[in-house]
Amino acid sequence: MSESTELEGRRFPAPEQLAAQANVGPDAYERAAQDRLGFWAEAADRLSWAQKWDEVLDWSNPPFAKWFVGGKLNVAYNCVDRHVEAGHGEQVAYHWEGEPGDTRTITYAQLKDDVCKAANALLELGVQAGDRVAIYMPMIPEAVVAMLACARIGAVHMVVFGGFSADALASRITDSGAVLVVTSDGGYRRGSPSALKPAVDDAVARTESVRNVLVVRRTKQDVEWSEGRDLWWHDVVDRQSTEHTPEAFDAEHPLYIMYTSGTTASPKGILHTSGGYLTQVAFTHWASFDLKADTDVFWTSADIGWVTGHSYIVYGPLANRATSIMYEGTPETPHRGRWFELIEKYKVTIMYTAPTVIRTFMKWGEDIPAGFDLSSLRLLGSVGEPINPEAWLWYHKNIGGGRCPIVDTWWQTETGAHMINPLPGVTALKPGSAQTPFPGISAKVVDDEGNELGDDSSGLLVLTEPWPSMLRTIWGDDDRYVDTYWSRFGKEVYFAGDGAKKDADGDIWLLGRVDDVMNVSGHRISTTEVESSLVAHPTVAEAAVVGASDPTTGQGIVAFVILRGNAEDSGDELVQQLRTHVAKDIGPIAKPRQIMVVQELPKTRSGKIMRRLLRDIAENRELGDVTTLTDSSVMNLIKDKLPASS
Ligand code: WT7
After folding, report:
1. 301 lines ligand 1 (CB under 6 A)
2. Does 483 reside within a domain?
3. 8 Å CB contact between 49 and 71
4. By CB count within 10 A, which of 98, 113, 273, 643 is most buried?
5. Domain AMP-binding enzyme C-terminal, which positions (predicted)?
6. Is 325 in the pocket of ligand 1 (CB under 6 A)?
7. Binding site membership of 526 for ligand 1 (Cβ less than 6 Å)
8. Do 532 and 497 sit in the same domain of this protein?
9. Of 460, 459, 519, 527, residue with least CA distance to 494
10. Which pLDDT tens digit goes with each residue over 267-304?
11. 3-state DSSP helix/strand/coil percent for the chain, to nearest 5?
């Protein structure tokens, strides 16, 4: 019997002590079921509003939602000032640790001063409410300060993950119309400084909207300088006043844009607004992780370049006055125990990370975590992809010491905050399942026609009621917003793009994407984006990309390419060239695990590439049904080309 079969049916009830003191008990589900909008209004009441809302939700023009209509607040005030005013200025907001081991301790009082100075600097640079500001930074405190400074003055931040290419940055700057880029000379990655400024120089040269580039000095590496355009953070920000009066903005004032991959080659600018977003990230952070602001030390291991960082390193924890860890580097530098060392050092109580990291730790072996004192931990979280029961159990035993509940949280860039997850003081946990919609969230599993399925069946995941932290649109493209998310089952049903199963108890299991989106180490990458990068290479005529299951990264990118007539197949050398090309074009996370040069691609009579068959090959399976192919011998041609081992 395999470990996963053995696990089936096993439940992990909420630890008694945790349940007795939990922030949220079983009544939350009843309360939300009776009065969903009243439930969210109570959650919003946990924030400070300069002006109370008139109406909780305006859904008169679906799918365009307005939450807390008429309400006004300042997001940065809610994250920083109000805690200082309440006498918590000396509490640590972030224990920051750089990869080389340098540290900074930032209290709420210091954070307030830093944010005010940065806000004043942005104003001096002519940034106004509504303007877009690109942030392209390593994991250093100034990244958070820059985000909050934008929020404070009503500017819309657009953070681009530092691992993305100049090209990716340029297209996001152009699409958003950013007037300022905040960046740094570089950051530390796997033991050495890695430059960021050259990519900014390259990107800005190809765009028209950027007036200034504000550069934080982190690694002290040499940078090119464009006089008049480029400014050092320490020259401009350090001399500013620590006084800045926050202005209250409308609840629906745009807070940020975050680009994410969809089914086409161009990423979508997901727009989040202020009041509803902050309400749900703060409430879920407090409820899903049972956050106790006075005693917990909270750590989300994500990068702020992803939505997980926005919602659970920055906005949720700060709105709740949490003490967080912020770490610059990767888990293996300078050694494979680095994370456990940080847990021990800062006595982390709540750890939130991704299954791909857990599986990497599993590969490295349980002796590594066993060498550290992890007894401070009381709760664990997971996000990014389904956590397989084996990884769940390993996490539970070797990191959680068998005593910490694991909260598996399903959500998306688009949803802004947790949507489906157990509650740690309530739910008896089932390894591998995200289980239940969060109180106040309506999730269903439906068939292709949109009919709700009963227990014990699989279909598509939909959300049938609007929620406070939902995306409001795709930046500059309302039609694409409607088409992508709200047209498959009508304009009041959100199509998530994930397959899901309901088990006999009605618990939800996420089954992965049903569209052309891959999930590699918890990062979303579109097959079309990688395909268009490949065909942009002079040797490639046609490309098809699939996500093949991978024991560590969840999925790995496998590409099939047809070369142009005049291109020479130099074998491994060309393959390496193409892999590097994609990494450079999009970013290292998009580098294909494997590229196979083939003569033909399997297509239907209407010319659509049959990725299903390519996936069969990439995963080394018996081929599925080939009868709809124009030419079924194509598959034999492809198989003949494969190296014997794969
Ligand atoms: C996609 C969203 C949510 C922040 C990080 C990723 C997958 C995410 C889970 C989970 C199963 C999950 C889904 C989703 N996903 N969390 N706990 N269980 N699948 O955000 O880049 O917007 O990706 O990640 O497929 O649609 P994202």
Report:
1. no
2. yes
3. yes
4. 273
5. 529-608
6. no
7. no
8. no
9. 460
10. 899 999 999 999 999 999 999 999 999 999 999 999 99
11. 30, 25, 40
